[in-house]
Amino acid sequence: MASTKEYLDFVMEQLSGLDELSSRAMMGTYILYYRGRIFGGIYDDRLLVKPVPMALRLMPDAEMELPYNGAKEMILVDNVDDRQFLCELVESMWEELPMKKSKKKKGI
Q1: Which of 53, 69, 95, 97 could form a disulfide with 37 if both were Cys (CB 3.0 to 4.6 A apart)?
Q2: Phi first, then psi: what are they for 93, rounded to 5°?
Q3: Where do the DSSP E strands lie in the chain?
Q4: Is the pLDDT of residue 26 over 70?
Q5: CA distances from 91 to 1, 15, 63, 86, 108 (A)
Q6: Cα–Cα distance, 72 to 56 (Å, whole number)
Q7: Spans of all domains in the chain
Q8: Taking Cα atoms as reference points, which of 13, 23, 4, 25 lies closest to residue 80?
């Protein structure tokens, strides 16, 4: 089952208090970015975030789920109706998220 644009729009609206928030469609899912770093995605109309230490502390009882077969487990955010919690979660995760990998130019 692919993710719907409606669910993406709902999650993005819930996170609208954050600056520099963006998404990118990818093979039936949506990758979510905050200030240039990937923090999670929408997979089969589920919001999943990277299992960084701060996210695990804020959601100690959250379920871990696979976004798709062969992927690493991510944290299921089942409290998407709480706008304040979502914004605090993403903001607090930012420091622990990996930096965007730079593409190295190959010499001739």
Answers
A1: 97
A2: -75, -25
A3: 21-26, 29-34, 37-43, 46-49, 64-65, 74-77
A4: yes
A5: 29, 10, 20, 9, 41
A6: 15
A7: 5-96
A8: 13
Nearest to 59 by CA among 92, 34, 37, 33: 92
Return phi, psi of residue 81, to 5°. Answer: -80, -15
Q: Is the pTM of this model over 0.70?
A: yes
CATH 3.30.1460.30 applies to domain 5-96: yes
- Report whether pLDDT(15) > 60: yes
CA distance 11 to 79: 11
Six-digit token pair at 23? 């998404």
CB 56: neighbour CB atoms within 10 A? 16
Model confidence band, residue 2 (pLDDT cutoffs 50, 70, 90): confident
Cβ neighbours for 80, distance < 8 A, ≥ 6 positions apart: 10, 11, 14, 47, 86
The packing angle between helices 5-14 and 83-93, to 10°, is 80
